Amino acid sequence: MLRIMPLALLTTLLVGVPVYWAFPEGLGIWRSAAIVSGWLGSGLLLANLLCMIREPWLAKWLGSLERMYGWHHWFGLAAYIVILCHPLALALDAWAEQPALAWAVLAPWQQSWPGWLGWLALLCLMAGMSSALASRTPYSTWRRLHWLLAAAIILAVAHLFVLGLDFPLLWSPLLAIGFILWRVVRADYGLAATPFVVSEVRSPARDIVEVQLAPLSRALDARPGQFVLAAFHDGPNFRGCHEFHPFTISALGALGELSLGIKALGDCTQHLQSLEPGVTASIQGPFGDFLSGQAAGRSLWIAGGIGITPFLARLRAGPPTSPVHLVYLYRGEQDAAYLHELRSFAQSGEHFSLTAGESGSKAPAFSDLIPATPELPGTNCYLCGPPGLVAAAVHYLLAQGVPGGQIHFERFDFR
Ligand SMILES: Cc1cc2nc3c(=O)[nH]c(=O)nc-3n(C[C@H](O)[C@H](O)[C@H](O)COP(=O)(O)OP(=O)(O)OC[C@H]3O[C@@H](n4cnc5c(N)ncnc54)[C@H](O)[C@@H]3O)c2cc1C
Predict the structure, then answer these.
(1) Which of 10, 317, 341, 370 has the most CB atoms lying inside 10 A of its own CB?
(2) Among 243, 166, 160, 230, which residue's Cα sits nearest to residue 198?
(3) By C-alpha distance, which of 205, 178, 211 is closest to 283?
(4) CATH number 2.40.30.10 is the correct assignment for the domain at 194-287
């Protein structure tokens, strides 16, 4: 509850202040509804834009980056629905005067600049929202279509300016532009990133490289379990793809070095398999709180494939101080990254034990891997891996009586 307070407070301000200033007096009910829905929608869009700003301090303050992205979606959807009510309320207001006028309000060709800009903004919003909600769209297409939403906001701001804005309300569209620029310049173009250089590359398994990065200016204040966004640039024989992708830290060095285990899952990560020492990188973060504040007592870690990275970083930082059992699943023998290292941790660490095995491409039989002992419901469970595996493991643990609050997982696929 406390974690949601800063965002709730900011949203109330972003939504409440413009609605309060613009609140109509002495107008008909539909005209008033149109004005209120317009400003309510723009307040929700401001909250939506705030939640896409990618700064470690903001993510920490508002809960986490994943939580911010979740709210970003909900605010976007709410804004979309409320904004659709704006032209409808205007048409109903015109209808009350004369039915033919209602059609004139809804027909873009019967309008002038303010109406055209409003309609264009609405069309971009509709197209952008449909693509944002289509979960099967490939990530790169989805990202490109997201620009339609930015275009919708810029057109909506122009719509407000052309209509003529009262001075006290000017901050609202300016803030919207400011939030977009903040995200684009600091996150997408990397102004907020720290420069690193690849100092070592090795291949712990098929289609996986582990890259060690050394800081070129300052080290990041990161913990095991956190992730960074990394963009790789050009090197002696390597052409970077320059786009930022999230990777979990797999090791932290004494001099600020950090390692990332990267599995070839798409175009960019496939290309990154040929990384070489000397390539420069921009790193943003750290983000996330997976494994932080790990409760005392018995823990169960479940890792699928490259989802081993946060657990590896934790083990590499030192032996656990309370009992931990790791269940590590991989498709086939050639995919068993870091297995030797994990086995040596299990042999030397008094509190650490390991069950590792091939699971092929199907969900494993959890009842064999994680016996339903009397201790299981009191165990803190941490899961990281492909969404299907995580969902199946959560289902099994809940069925064994592990409370939902004791199950923590890291998703490698949030948008
Ligand atoms: C918090 C987090 C931690 C991760 N840690 C690791 C790790 O330690 N090792 C590892 O190999 N992979 C990790 N991933 C997954 C990794 O980010 C994707 O595999 C990679 O971005 C794929 O990019 P691509 O262009 O090769 O593939 P694409 O085909 O473009 O994408 C494949 C899938 O990866 C996801 N993805 C792509 N780009 C991004 C992006 N910029 N932001 C968020 N998701 C994206 C999408 O779900 C997409 O559907 C992590 C992802 C997240 C969200």
Answers:
(1) 370
(2) 230
(3) 211
(4) yes
